[in-house]
Amino acid sequence: MISIIPVEGVPEIRAGDDLAAIIARSAELREQDVVVVAQKAVSKAEGRVVRLDEVEPSARARALGGPGTDLRQLEVVLSETARVVRSRGGLVIAETRDGFVCASAGVDHSNAEAGTVILLPLDADASARRIRAGLAELTGLGLAVIVTDSFGRPFRKGTTDIAIGVAGLAPLRDLRGTIDRSGQALRSTQVAVADEIAAAADLLRTSKADGLPVVVVRGLHLDGEGSATELVIPAQRDLFR
Q1: What pLDDT is attached to residue 106?
Q2: Residue 79 — pLDDT band, cuts 50, 70, 90?
Q3: Confidence of residue 176 (pLDDT cuts 50, 70, 90)
Q4: Average pLDDT rounded to a whole number, residues 113-129
Q5: Does residue 223 have a pLDDT over 90?
Q6: By CB atoms within 10 Å of each CB, which of 5, 27, 84, 110 scores lowest?
Q7: pLDDT at res. 203
Q8: Which domains are seen in the chain, by residue range?
């Protein structure tokens, strides 16, 4: 049986906080648990917060802005963008340094202090590995860690949480070469296990104000190693680029 368990009592995260220590104190962990950590908590701990009153919009931000656009926030978005995929009226769909394609390069003001925005971690896979290593040292348990963020999806309304950082499990289950029920060999099926776990954990959060940055998913069989960047489709195979 798979259980999805909220970790209650996690305090507001500040720059420099030891997330592994906070999680170890707050959660009752077991061997093979998957610890799912919201990106905002990771970014805050790593100091990935920008004060907008310290930002000067560039000419490019002014050119891409639309009515009502906060050009300072748009400038931060552009600073985090490896490539602008699409833009319209101040909205930017961007490719991040890690290859993720998302709105505003992941820059967000929800659950941020007034006058600030929160950026994605510089390397969310490395963040997941650090948290996992810290938890292993503190608990002696073999755990996996997933760092998640809410992303929109082309052609679909609404957001869902996906994995942007992974440690301690293979993010993809490769079914290519296996046989389906009709006896046909599968040629391309790969299951995004890390994304499925991320979305399942987000079911416990009914709003942005829930204050549940950490969720434990229990009952899965963990195997392999990998990173969230393995979930990004290579450019040469991406039909939408």
Answers
A1: 96
A2: very high
A3: confident
A4: 97
A5: no
A6: 110
A7: 94
A8: 1-46+121-236 (3.30.1330.100), 49-120 (3.90.1660.10)
pLDDT at position 8 over 80: yes
CA angle centred on 118, ends 28 and 23, rounded to 5°:
10
Whether the model pTM is above 0.70 = yes
Task: Please state, for a pLDDT cut of 90, what percent of the chain lies above it.
Answer: 80
Instruction: Map the chain to HEC letters.
Output: CCEEEECCCCCCCCCCCCHHHHHHHHCCCCCCCEEEEEHHHHHHHCCCEEEHHHCCCCHHHHHHCCCCCCHHHHHHHHHCCCEEEEEECCEEEEECCCCCEEEHHHCECCCCCCCEEECCCCCHHHHHHHHHHHHHHHHCCCCEEEEEEEEEECCEEEEEEEEEEEECCCCCEECCCCECCCCCECCCCEECHHHHHHHHHHCCCCCCCCCCCEEEEECCCCCCCCCHHHHCCCHHHCCCC
Q: Which residues of 40-60 are buried (b: 16+ CB within 10 A; e: fewer)?
A: bbbbbbbebbbebeebebeee
Q: Are 2 and 198 in contact (CB under 8 A)?
A: no
Q: Are 135 and 127 in contact (CB under 8 A)?
A: no
Burial of 132 per CB tally in 10 Å (0-12, 13-18, 19+): buried
Instruction: Decide: 31 and 142 in contact? Cβ < 8 Å.
Output: yes
pLDDT at 59: 97
- Kindly provide the b/e burial profile for residues 68-92, where b requires at least 16 CB atoms within 10 angstroms of the residue's own CB: ebbbbbbbbbbebbeeeeebeebeb
In the predicted structure, residue 173 carries a pLDDT above the cut 70: yes
